[in-house]
Amino acid sequence: MTSAAAANSPVDGILATASIVLSLLVAAWALVAAVRHRPPDRVQFVGLAVLELALLALTVLALVAVGGGDRPGEPGAFFGYLVTLVCMPPLAWVLARMEPTRWGSAIVCAVCLVAPVVVVRLQQTWEVLGG
Amino acid sequence: MVETRPARRTTNTGPGRLLIAVYLLFAIAATSRAGLQIATRFDEAPVAYLLSALAALIYIVAAVGLARAGHTGRRVALACCSLELVGVIAVGVLSLADPELFPDETVWSQFGSGYGYIPLVLPVLGLFWLWRTRRDPA
Fold this sequence. Notes:
Order of helices and strands of chain B: HHHHH
Number of strands of chain A: 0
Radius of gyration of chain B: 16 Å
Shape of chain A: elongated
Structural class of chain A: mainly alpha
Oligomer: heterodimer
Number of helices of chain B: 5
Mean pLDDT of chain A: 89
Largest interface: A-B, 25 and 23 residues
Largest sheet of chain A: none
Number of strands of chain B: 0
Shape of chain B: elongated
Helix content of chain B: over 70%
Order of helices and strands of chain A: HHHHH
Number of helices of chain A: 5
């Protein structure tokens, strides 16, 4: 497990790609809802839940790699992004529940647009830049 | 315009809730980053890390101010957004003019380029939102 993790970045695989795609799909769905003045629907909440599961799995992969002796290139930024990433779907969930208007959908859309960026930043801060 | 007015009086509903969401996001991002950096390698760049912690604190207080709404909440949010705008511009200029001041990046370095320049846009949106929801004098 250690050698496999050492060869590849733990946050740069099928799971990361799936998280990005899922997040963008939920964002698109929420955007349509926001534009149509619709409050967050079941699809958005289920999407957030599945996204959170994927991100938690991604976190476990990263922690396993760290436990196996690997280190991210920029640890401070990497773990900062990781903590932020895991908090994002629950944050969107809670605020969207509080806001049963089009703006609730806008919150889900915004968070799901930012999440892929954070995943990419995770990948960038894992790789050792000039180290 | 007329029918939306009553709803627009408060900072913590509608678009305001979206703004609070982004503020909370940045509060989490800056807090976790600053917390980890201060805990693990404070000696390397104390100024940068303390600045990140300050930014985190401002994001948290701004979010609370917007969420609490009311007179005090608005004042708190106004102060935070102003501080934030000054901070991100000052740090942005300083980090470009004298990179040695900040050996490690902060949330506000290069005008928040590491965070998609959202740190630069956010206080402007916050101030705009406070202005939009201001009470009519009459």
